[in-house]
Amino acid sequence: MLSEEQSQKHITTGSGDLNGILGGGIHCKEVTEIGGVPGIGKTQLGIQLAINVQIPVDYGGLGGKAIYIDTEGSFMVERVYQIAEGCISDIMEYFPCHHDKSSSGQENLQPESFLAGIYYFRICSYTEQIAVINYLEKFLGEHKDVRIVIIDSVTFHFRQDFDDLALRTRVLCGLSLKLMKLSKSYNLAVVLLNQVTTKFTEGSFQLTLALGDSWSHSCTNRLILYWKGNERCAYLDKSPSLPVASTPYAVTSKGVRDAGSSSCKRVRVM
């Protein structure tokens, strides 16, 4: 087991600092929850991971494919194309000699090939979400090159349509257990994007991730994205093997990158 863990590859986030607090990137065989306020970059990070998982093995990636389950309708193909172009330009910058020699690599390093490597599911209700997650095992059995499953977001329909909170918790925990089993059986990463809600604690309302405390036990790792003034930051709130840590990051035209690589500031609309 130790040997397997040490040889396990990670999916890069696009930011070296973010990879640093995550122990190299997003881990396969684990469920990672990423939460934060609207506009912080959750979907951007989800799309970035769906692109980065496809980086060929020759260039240090996994050479896999992605499943993207979109419950909110925030998946924009034009933006995916931009992030794919950014990923390709980074590969060509870091591996100029390697890229020139590999003609097959040149054919694969096209934005269209990255788009073709994403299996996209649009979900319009919680019943569809349950059905798709139950269908995943059959789908993964037929597509063994999938290395990441992203759900954006896991909470949306369950917050809108569910009145029985106890039943909601049981259903979500059942789905989480199924996803955790799939991640280990098929050696892939599962990334669950989550929204925030308010919680009354010690006499004041505070922002916390949605679905309550019982849901927080359903994931292996938990990453919280937040604003620190005009700067985006990520905070590793939970991990079985890594210390609690935080780091700034940026969302640029090329995708998620280190904070120092962008001068983008938060714009406040009055």
UniProtKB/TrEMBL annotation:
Pfam families: Rad51. The keyword DNA-binding applies. InterPro entries: HR_Repair_Mediator, P-loop_NTPase, Rad51_C, RecA_ATP-bd. GO terms for molecular function: ATP binding; ATP-dependent DNA damage sensor activity; crossover junction DNA endonuclease activity; four-way junction DNA binding. CDD domains: Rad51C. One of its GO terms (cellular component) is Rad51B-Rad51C-Rad51D-XRCC2 complex. It is found in: Nucleus. Keywords: ATP-binding, DNA damage, DNA recombination, DNA repair, DNA-binding, Nucleotide-binding, Nucleus. Residues 7-196 form the RecA family profile domain. The keyword DNA repair applies. It comes from the Eukaryota. Its main location: nucleus. GO terms for biological process: meiotic DNA recombinase assembly; reciprocal meiotic recombination. Belongs to the RecA family. RAD51 subfamily. Involved in the homologous recombination repair (HRR) pathway of double-stranded DNA breaks arising during DNA replication or induced by DNA-damaging agents. This is DNA repair protein RAD51 homolog 3.
